[in-house]
Write a structure and sequence with these properties.
Distance between the termini: 49 Å
Helix content: 40-55%
Shape: globular
Number of strands: 11
Strand order of the largest sheet: 4-3-5-6
Largest sheet: 4 strands, parallel
Order of helices and strands: EEHEHEHEHEHEEEHHHHHHHHEEH
Strand content: 15-25%
Structural class: alpha/beta
Radius of gyration: 20 Å
Bound molecules: nicotinamide-adenine-dinucleotide, zinc ion
């Protein structure tokens, strides 16, 4: 079993991430060892509930642990206050109290919602993350960002609330649809460009040699990506500076998601976001053409840019993209920060992107 520790020097929120195929079976042992709760509220969407949730309740019951499922309909539209309130009401009806804990079993939507509830329920109860999507394993389950979407935008309300532990069982990926895999791969590629040339080369080689993503290879990629995220968030738990690099491809990507009325998958949106920001970086002579091409080719090879022409026409509107970026919550003191690659595995924070530069570079891209 691989173990990756995350330690925050400024707070007492350190915890460990465990990775091993088949880990789900050992969850009762971990809970008995740590005693985070007398009872466990397992929060999951209905799809994951029928695939794994009911089984987990039985596994825990067989080990003498008390657990109850609290479910909601699957999908991003349900990551809302309303869903959180319904789940909280259910937990109150079940008389769960401060000595109980939450298990977030599912993808990023479940992790964000369950973490948000854990941070508020009776002024905060412990929770653990058991991610079941690739994106959840390499990204959303780690770092303690929780939240819900509002009609005004995604993740506008939330908390920083670290889990007690993260348990990753790559066997969950056996039932994950390809579309969801791609969302995870986009984040893995992002991590490699931010911080790990070795990982980038491995991904390039896999494509070149047409290798299959076996479970052994997937495990290795998950571990490498987590190490990068852990390294970054340890330096900046509350997303004040360093953590911003994780936003590479996301500033433009979020705007594209919104413009597409969320028809674009997150992985596609951030992939196109990375391609566009690379182009801007190369226009500004921050990134050389050779590295730009290598990054773009890798993203392309993962089928992340298969976007319908109808959606592309709708979203490739620089004025609209700019105005959405300006309203992004990541804008600090009215400055727009762009994360730009200088080369593979090195990014810089471009501190004050102007509308003029953005539009000039973007128009060159569109006219290319
Ligand atoms: N907190 C963070 O740091 C952070 C980071 C990145 C993303 N996020 C959030 O994560 C969310 C996206 O997460 P996601 O892509 O995991 O989406 P998701 O949670 O909606 O899961 C995607 C779909 O896959 C299904 N599913 C989950 N596991 C499965 C499995 N093993 N087999 C079959 N189907 C399965 C789910 O039921 C759902 O329909 C967004 O809301 C985003 O804001 C948070
Ligand atoms: Zn992302």
């Amino acid at each position: 079993m691989k173990e990756i520790p995350i330690s925050f020097t400024l707070s007492k929120n350190s915890y460990r991430i465990f990775i091993e195929p088949g880990l789900l079976k050992r969850i009762p042992v971990f809970l008995q060892q740590n005693k985070w709760g007398e009872r466990y509220a397992i929060i999951c969407d209905r799809r994951v509930a029928s695939l794994y949730g009911k089984k987990l309740v039985k596994t825990l019951a067989d080990a003498g642990l008390k657990a109850q499922l609290f479910t909601f309909p699957a999908g991003e539209p349900f990551k809302t206050f309303q869903t959180a309130m319904k789940l909280i009401s259910g937990m109150l009806r079940a008389k769960l109290n401060r000595s109980d804990a939450i298990i977030a079993l599912g993808g990023g939507v479940t992790g964000d919602l369950a973490g948000f509830i854990a941070s508020m329920y009776m002024r905060g109860i412990p929770y653990i993350q058991i991610p079941t999507t690739l994106l959840g394993m390499v990204d959303s389950s780690i770092g303690g960002k929780t939240g819900v979407n509002l009609t005004e935008g995604k993740n506008l309300v939330g908390t920083f609330y670290q889990p007690k532990a993260v348990y990753i069982d790559p066997d969950f990926l056996k039932t994950l649809p390809k579309k969801q895999f791609l969302n995870g791969f986009a984040e893995i590629i992002k991590c490699s460009i931010i911080n790990d040339k070795g990982l980038f080369l491995e991904l390039e080689n896999m494509i070149k040699e047409n290798k299959k993503f076996t479970s052994a290879i997937l495990n290795k990629l998950i571990v490498q990506s987590i190490k990068i995220k852990a390294y970054i968030i340890e330096k900046d738990e509350k997303d004040i500076a360093t953590r911003m690099v994780l936003n590479y491809g996301h500033t433009i990507g979020h705007a594209l998601e919104k413009l597409s009325a969320y028809q674009l998958e997150h992985g596609q949106a951030i992939s196109l976001g990375m391609i566009l920001v690379n182009k801007i970086a190369s226009e500004l002579r921050l990134l050389n053409k050779k590295d730009e091409m290598r990054i773009n080719n890798l993203i392309n090879a993962f089928d992340l840019l298969k976007i319908s022409p109808k959606i592309l026409t709708k979203i490739m509107d620089p004025q609209k993209i700019w105005s959405i970026i300006q309203n992004d919550k990541k804008v600090h003191k009215s400055k727009i920060y762009f994360i730009m690659p200088k080369k593979i595995s090195k990014t810089i924070i471009y501190p004050d992107m102007s509308k003029k530069i953005f539009l000039k570079c973007f128009l060159r891209i569109v006219n290319d």
